[in-house]
What we know:
By secondary structure, the protein is an alpha/beta fold. The protein has two domains: about 10-220, 3-Layer(aba) Sandwich (Rossmann fold); about 235-305, Helicase, Ruva Protein, domain 3 (Orthogonal Bundle). Helix content is about 50%, strand content about 10%. The chain has helices spanning about 25-40, 40-45, 50-65, 75-90, 120-130, 150-160, 200-220, 235-250, 255-265, 270-275, 280-290, 295-305; strands at about 70-75, 100-105, 140, 165-170, 180-185. The chain has a five-stranded parallel sheet with strand order 2-1-3-4-5, sandwiched between helices.
Amino acid sequence: MNNLEERGHLLTEQVNPNSQNLDQLSSLELVELFNSEDAKTLSAIAEAKEQLAKAIDIGAHQLHRGGRLFYVGAGTSGRLGVLDAAECPPTFCSPPELVQGIIAGGAGALIRSSEDLEDRAEDGAEAIAHRQITELDVVVGITAGGTTPFVQGALNAAKARGASTVLIACVPATQVKSEADVDIRLLVGPEILAGSTRLKAGTVTKMALNIISTGVMVKLGKVYGNRMVDVAVTNKKLHDRALRMLVDLTELSREDAGYLLERSGRSVKLSLLMHWTGLDKEAGVELLNAHQGQLRPALLSYQKSQQ
């Protein structure tokens, strides 16, 4: 799009015919309208399932090779990316640098409006250079309307450096084209409040980021079954969750599970491996490392070695 001032035709900027009397609705009618419109986020995710799966596969492949995952956005889109990145370390015990959020305006933009900073493509490119992004990394550009210069500048710079690129937008490709390796379009339609993409567009974007980051972490072996066995045991709630996982999966008493957890260095994954194999901590770590930290392959390998 050559003239970024003329965005009225974009799907995210159009007027929703279902909410033209928004200011006349009762509170209950408002809730009902939101509910019916938000239901469209589910179908939008379903329509984009192939692209989301591709993003997971590329992300897992690149991170397995030593790369990093970056989310880039401005305003609401940037905040959602930072949020998803921030939730990975406590959930999956991943290092903070593995998944990172880049928002136009930096940390200050998380708590105050910075939408005036989204129009500088060169700032997006500079953010990519500053983080020394390489061909091992994955950069996900998040822009509801698809046109945000900060995001486009970042994606172009990342692509020039050989990184894998993903675009998440809420407008069809016919309105805004993309040369990203993975082009994810989440078409939820016009917002109840015209142009306010913190609503449906924000909701469906959060859903997509949940799917991508969780899917990547599953592929990296951060999960066993549906348990977050790489959870960082950093507070009472997470310590309790760790103990409950061990009790459920091993049938140990809570007291014995606590002892096992401490012997492993507070690693649920290592605790399980030690319990199921009889290995000590050092040997368990060695076996896990030999299988890229993945518990199930490590267990299968040990079981075969004992036959």
